[in-house]
Amino acid sequence: MAVDEHQRARFASELMERIGETVGQKAQASTIFSDPVEREGVTVIPVAAARFGFGAGSGADPGKRQEGDGGGGGGALSPAGYIELKDGRSRFVPIVHPFRMLALVCAAVVAGMAVARPLATKPRSSALPWR
């Protein structure tokens, strides 16, 4: 039984809405900020970085009598650091990821080489040598 375009669009819209609601339930402040921990006058609030994504789609090939719908979503949390509250002051202390730092150093070296190489090479004359 063929599904018309209006039904297909309504299905995709409803699917996106359901996925969005599910993701929205997970994307709360408690997902990012954990319960504070207090010791010896210092309060620490763990902080995470959250990434969420979702999508849906549908398609049909009437010539082959094929139809399809689908969707999905996902998310990831990773520690980002913590907020330290001490003596009436606050500060964010990031967690340094060794692999990210290595990638940053490698990117800086490659960028430096890309800039330095053209500066180090001698410009060529535009005149042909046999003239």
Detailed description of the structure:
With 131 residues, the protein is an alpha+beta fold. 37% of the residues lie in helices and 38% in strands. The chain has 3 helices and 4 strands. Strand 1 (37-39) and strand 2 (42-61) form a beta hairpin. The longest helix has 23 residues, at 98-120. It is flat, with a radius of gyration of 27 Å.
Enumerate the strands of the largest sheet in spatial order, edge to edge or round the barrel. Answer: 1-2-3-4
Q: Can you count the beta strands?
A: 4
**What is the overall pLDDT average?**
79
The secondary structure category is: alpha+beta
Give the overall form. Answer: flat
The helicity comes to 25-40%
| Largest sheet descriptor | 4 strands, antiparallel
For the CA atoms, what is the radius of gyration?
Answer: 27 Å
Q: What's the order of the H and E elements?
A: HHEEEEH
Strand content: 35-45%
The domain tally reads: 1
Distance between the termini: 77 Å
Low-confidence stretches: none
Q: What is the overall number of helices? A: 3
